[in-house]
């Protein structure tokens, strides 16, 4: 018989074995890291009390903090145990001798914590940053917003341990990236964004950072062309150069080797020429935003159709004058959730194949020169949340049912298409006063001059339309009175189509069975 004491003993033995295995694994990991000159422990929030920060690094921490805010008595506020009791944003780790080293410096607003390293009005960047031999991440958020601060050249001497370099929302940061950034050979993330005075040309030497995974240089003041050396960034997952003043073509060679790229955002620049066919080589792309440029030429139907992981395609506000919408690629892009190609000079018809993009939630084709009918297949987009087809030359029978229109509400915009018409007697929302819902402000985002007209006999013939209900005063389950005294119609079954004679009524009352 197994006693409770023996059970406890067995459980203790199991726990001891697990602990021994964990210690062995940690020991092997430490030895492995020690052989490679790396730290033996990572990002300890509460290191052992016996551990101490390297004295030189402790002094350097104070110097860095004093440079960003000389109104705080840092040495008095945090006299000892900087890694344990220091401000939020300072992260340490231990080496194999249990000496602590600074591995992260996050300066500015980092979180909701009260003890962030807040920057003062005269913040500066201290050369003491070069005294952290194990520094992996340097982060400045909204620090340099009063006095101009030049990005110092000593940053490129931080050492090969640095993996992340981040400067966000520093309005007074001036200068630009130097080609010497290639000295930081292990960089994985380079993010300089929302630094409005920071700019210049993007250095070709960035292409030498073969381990780079994220390159974000958005909302700065960069000029010049896209470096062709980017074709060496084979591990890149995010390339965001949006909101700058870049010009020239998108080099075809740049995309040839970016098989891991997931996000490509070059929007709000002055890029020209065509979208290269080599975009198909970036086969992992999930987001493409090339809007607000001067791109021209036909849209590469075959190439875009190969991007089977694509979720977002934004090409609005370009110069695709005379180009038509692709037709074949939509059947292969079943994961796309947002399509925007507004105000880009598109001509021709909206393809029926757009109705195959079953996960589509947002479609914006407004302010082009599209013509022909609205494909009825668009109502098959059961996930659609907003659709803007306004400001084109669309014509023919308006295809959507009352249920679809009511579900879309103000997110359905088809205004400023003079050739559109409705079915005879079509009342598009019987729960509202007797007005045509489609003729309201929901059509184009502004008031519309008059209701959508009824289709003529010729237009109906061209649409192969046949009236579903006769205009008799009583038919089946629907009863109505066309006299002037009639003020209400009682309907036993909700329908999408009501006879033309009901257009003289002032309002409807709906009664469910």
From TrEMBL:
Annotated source species: Ceratopteris richardii
Signal peptide (residue range): 1-34
SMART domains per record: LRR_TYP
Protein name, entry field: Uncharacterized protein
Claim: Electron transport is one of the keywords in the record: no
Name of one Pfam family that matches: LRR_8
Alphabetical keyword list: Glycoprotein, Leucine-rich repeat, Repeat, Signal
Organism domain of life: Eukaryota
InterPro entries: Leu-rich_rpt, Leu-rich_rpt_typical-subtyp, LRR_dom_sf, PGIP
Location of the protein in the cell: Cell envelope
């Amino acid at each position: 018989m197994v006693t409770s004491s023996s059970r406890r003993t067995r459980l203790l033995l199991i726990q001891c074995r697990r602990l021994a295995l964990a210690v062995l694994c940690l020991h092997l990991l430490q030895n492995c890291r020690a052989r490679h000159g790396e730290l033996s422990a990572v990002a300890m929030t509460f290191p052992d009390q016996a551990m101490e920060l390297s004295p030189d690094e402790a002094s350097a921490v104070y110097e860095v903090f004093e440079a960003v805010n000389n109104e705080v008595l840092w040495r008095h506020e945090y006299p000892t145990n900087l890694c344990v009791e220091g401000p939020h944003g300072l992260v340490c780790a231990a080496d194999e001798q249990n000496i602590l080293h600074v591995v992260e410096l996050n300066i500015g607003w980092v979180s909701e914590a009260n003890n962030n390293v807040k920057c003062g009005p005269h913040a500066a960047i201290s050369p003491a940053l070069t005294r952290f031999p194990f520094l992996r991440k340097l982060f400045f958020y909204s620090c340099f917003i009063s006095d101009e601060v030049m990005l110092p050249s000593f940053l490129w001497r931080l050492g090969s341990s640095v993996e992340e370099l981040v400067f966000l929302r520093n309005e007074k940061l001036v200068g630009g990236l130097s080609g010497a950034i290639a000295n930081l050979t292990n960089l994985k993330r380079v993010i300089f964004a929302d630094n409005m005075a920071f700019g210049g040309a993007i250095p070709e030497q960035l292409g030498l950072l073969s381990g780079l995974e994220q390159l974000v240089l958005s909302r700065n003041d960069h000029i010049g062309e896209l470096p062709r050396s980017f074709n060496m960034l084979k591990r890149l997952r995010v390339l965001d150069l949006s909101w700058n003043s870049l010009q020239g073509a998108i080099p075809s060679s740049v995309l040839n080797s970016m098989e891991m790229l997931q996000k490509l955002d070059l929007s709000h620049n002055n890029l020209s020429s065509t979208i290269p066919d080599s975009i198909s080589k970036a086969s992992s792309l999930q987001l493409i935003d090339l809007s607000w440029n001067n791109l021209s030429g036909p849209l590469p139907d075959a190439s875009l159709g190969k991007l089977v992981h694509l979720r977002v395609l934004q090409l609005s506000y370009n110069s695709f004058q005379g180009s038509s919408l692709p037709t074949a690629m939509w059947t292969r892009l079943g994961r796309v959730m947002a399509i925007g190609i507004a105000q880009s000079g598109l001509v021709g018809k909206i393809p029926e194949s757009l109705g195959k993009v079953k996960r589509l939630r947002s479609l914006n084709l407004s302010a082009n020169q599209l013509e022909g009918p609205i494909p009825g297949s668009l109502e098959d987009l059961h996930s659609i949340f907003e659709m803007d087809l306004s400001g084109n030359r669309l014509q023919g029978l308006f295809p959507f049912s009352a249920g679809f229109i009511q579900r879309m509400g103000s997110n359905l915009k088809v205004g400023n298409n003079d050739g559109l018409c409705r079915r005879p007697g079509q009342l598009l929302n019987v729960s509202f006063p007797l007005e045509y819902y489609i003729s309201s402000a929901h059509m184009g985002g502004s008031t519309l001059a008059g209701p959508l007209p009824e289709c003529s006999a010729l237009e109906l013939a061209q649409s192969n339309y046949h009236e579903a209900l006769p205009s008799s005063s009583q038919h089946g389950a629907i009863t109505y009175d066309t006299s002037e005294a009639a003020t209400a119609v009682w309907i036993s079954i909700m329908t999408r189509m009501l006879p033309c004679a009901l257009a003289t009524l002032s309002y409807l009352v709906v009664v469910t069975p």
